């Protein structure tokens, strides 16, 4: 009898993706809505743009399509495109932000989708911060709550996408969005930092994803989980060195990036990247 292959033995295959990004032309840290943000700390705006351009160029070199949304003056956090919407099967669930500072981003992103030929859109009733709190596996939509998205928004997403939405409770303010504590690697393979979740949610993750890659406090604290995988290449903050080693052992190709300036707003690789998933 042969047993199922261990995650490390699985062959890895890249699938080309379509991403939406927003140049940090108006990026600055002038308010604090998460523990990473300190308006008193200087941000190098030019370097922020350069680091973001490197990420955009990397995606294109890897063969992905990168679409761009025009940055709006006065919306410094708009660079974190992941929060702008959630797109599954070509269906666009708009975002509704918790904080007044970001409210106008929701309609701005929804307009982009309208203007770019998307016809199945939903303007949400409850707070949801897009892919900051919704992560899509092959079988589920994983959904964070506790700091930003409203749990009622999870049910709203479930009805709109017609996919099971698993609610997960976040408990550490440093990991205020699900995409700072968990990332989808491929299909139903995920990685996460267990301590970021309430006990019940940890138990749920253990049951649903027994093969998950567990990420250390050290790698989580440098935003290592704010990563983007195409099934082979995993783009992540370069400081997450231990995690890069774990990914290599599983047959992935980790690519470390320096997004120091965008980290000052509480975001990194994944936060800057919204995945547009096409119709099946
Ligand atoms: N300053 C932003 C906020 O606190 C950062 C958002 C990061 N985005 C993410 N997908 N986690 O809302």
From TrEMBL:
Keywords: Transferase. It comes from the Bacteria. GO terms for molecular function: transferase activity. This is Amidinotransferase. NCBIfam families: DiMArgaseDdahMtb (NF045659).
């Amino acid at each position: 009898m042969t047993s199922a292959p261990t995650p490390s033995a699985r062959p890895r295959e890249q699938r080309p993706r379509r991403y939406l990004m927003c140049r940090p032309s108006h990026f600055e840290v002038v308010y604090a809505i998460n523990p990473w943000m300190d308006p008193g700390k200087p941000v190098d705006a030019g370097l922020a743009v350069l680091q973001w351009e490197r990420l955009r160029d990397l995606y294109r070199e890897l063969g992905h399509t990168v679409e761009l949304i025009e940055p709006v003056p006065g919306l410094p956090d708009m660079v974190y495109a992941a929060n702008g919407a959630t797109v599954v099967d070509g269906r666009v669930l708009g975002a509704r932000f918790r904080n007044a500072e970001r409210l106008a981003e929701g309609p701005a992103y929804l307009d982009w989708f309208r203007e770019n030929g998307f016809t199945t859109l939903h303007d949400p009733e409850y707070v949801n911060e897009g892919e900051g709190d919704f992560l899509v596996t092959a079988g589920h939509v994983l959904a964070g709550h506790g700091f930003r998205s409203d749990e009622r928004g999870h049910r709203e997403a479930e009805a709109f996408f017609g996919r099971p939405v698993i609610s997960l409770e976040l408990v550490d303010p440093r990991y205020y969005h699900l995409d700072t504590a968990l990332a989808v690697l491929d299909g139903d393979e995920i990685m996460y930092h267990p301590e970021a979740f309430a006990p019940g949610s940890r138990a749920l993750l253990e049951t649903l994803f027994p093969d998950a890659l567990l990420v250390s406090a050290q790698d989580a604290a440098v935003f290592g989980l704010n990563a983007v995988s195409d099934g082979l290449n995993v783009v992540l903050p370069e400081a997450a060195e231990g995690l890069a080693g774990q990914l290599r052992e599983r047959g992935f190709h980790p690519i470390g990036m320096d997004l120091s300036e965008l980290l000052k707003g509480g975001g990194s690789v994944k936060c800057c990247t919204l995945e547009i998933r096409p119709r099946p």
